[in-house]
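Researcher: Sequence recovery benchmark, item below. Answer with residues only.
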């Protein structure tokens, strides 16, 4: 059987959009943002438009100005340890 590569990134980006829906206007979402030339690419960059604005969402509350996410599969976790890494 052939190995099937599943693209988890679109689902992760959609989930982050839903999670932050109440404060969506406070952020800029950049999907698969190129850091340089290929293959350096991050899965999601969320930029807080105003650095010191209050966010009601539990996840969004810990965000800084620039927030980089690497998401490889549903087995990945999004917690404070991952955030600080």
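Model:
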């Amino acid at each position: 059987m052939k190995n099937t590569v599943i693209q988890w990134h679109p689902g992760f980006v959609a989930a982050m959009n839903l999670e932050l829906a109440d404060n969506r206007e406070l952020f800029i979402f950049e999907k698969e943002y190129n850091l340089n030339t290929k293959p350096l690419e991050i899965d999601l960059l969320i930029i807080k438009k105003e650095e010191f604005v209050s966010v009601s969402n539990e996840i969004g509350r810990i965000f800084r100005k620039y927030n980089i996410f690497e998401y490889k599969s549903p087995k990945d976790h999004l917690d404070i340890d991952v955030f600080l890494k």
